[in-house]
Amino acid sequence: MSRADLLVSLVKAGSQGDQQLFRTTVEAMAADERAKQHHQLASKLEENLRAPAARAKPADVPRAFDGGHGGLLYEVEPRRNLESLLLDDATRAACRELVEEQQRKDLLRSYGIEPRHRVLLSGPPGNGKTSVAAALAAELLSPLFVVRYEAVIGSFLGETSSRLKKLFDFVRTHQCVLFFDEFDTLGKERGDTHETGEIKRVVSSLLLQIDRFSLAMLSS
């Protein structure tokens, strides 16, 4: 394979995330350089090809996109499963039960039972709420959509509720997990006397939309 073909193959592997093509291309480049007596360059290529494999860890990849929802969400491509997380037995069992219910929802519904589709993840910052949401999405073979509050919350009367409706209209057409990180940003107590009537209407609208949605993750 010519050097030009190898470079094209390398770019293709990078743009498509094809690890196998990337590896074989770099190996071919190293062999080509070694055949030209460029042993130092060949050794560096082979060394750098091996090093990431030893250090690589699964990572969830965020991707901002519009996709018809006006930029109200960003998508995370989950790359961790539940087994990769350090969880206590009770939490792991609860997560497994949720996944199994979703996977057997047709069977449950044939008996008149609805699978659970809302989860509240609670705990201090950094305790793994987002990682659990991503792992559940991975187990369900679904993308994880995370709400962008800065895009959802509007300054005009009715604007936030309208955007929430648009957000849910979009996710209902996709098999996905919807994640509200820091849910208390929107999920205020409806009986709070310090909040305005507009906030109370937003909360009521939000809870109604969540109730109708297939699977939503809330964290606080």
* Secondary-structure element string: HHHEEHHEHEHHEHE
- Shape estimate: elongated
- The overall pLDDT average reads 78
The assigned structural class equals: alpha/beta
Overall number of structural domains:
2
* CATH architectural group of the largest domain: 3-Layer(aba) Sandwich
Individual helix count: 9
| CATH class term of the largest domain | Alpha Beta
Q: Identify the CATH homologous superfamily of the largest domain.
A: P-loop containing nucleotide triphosphate hydrolases
Radius of gyration: 23 Å
Q: Quote the distance from N terminus to C terminus.
A: 55 Å
Percent helix, as a range, is 40-55%
Describe this protein with a few key phrases.
six-stranded mixed beta sheet; Rossmann fold; 9 helices
Give an overview of the whole structure.
By secondary structure, the chain is an alpha/beta fold. It folds into 2 domains: 3-55, no CATH class; 61-219, 3-Layer(aba) Sandwich (Rossmann fold), CATH 3.40.50. Helix content is 51%, strand content 11%. It has 9 helices and 6 strands. It has helices at 3-16, 19-35, 39-55, 89-103, 105-110, 129-139, 149-152, 159-171, 197-212, and strands at residues 61-64, 73-77, 118-121, 144-147, 177-180, 216-219. It has a 6-stranded mixed sheet. Helix 9 (197-212) links the parallel strand 5 (177-180) and strand 6 (216-219). The longest helix is centred in the N-terminal third of the chain and has 17 residues, at 19-35. The protein is elongated. Mean pLDDT is 78; it is low at 52-57.
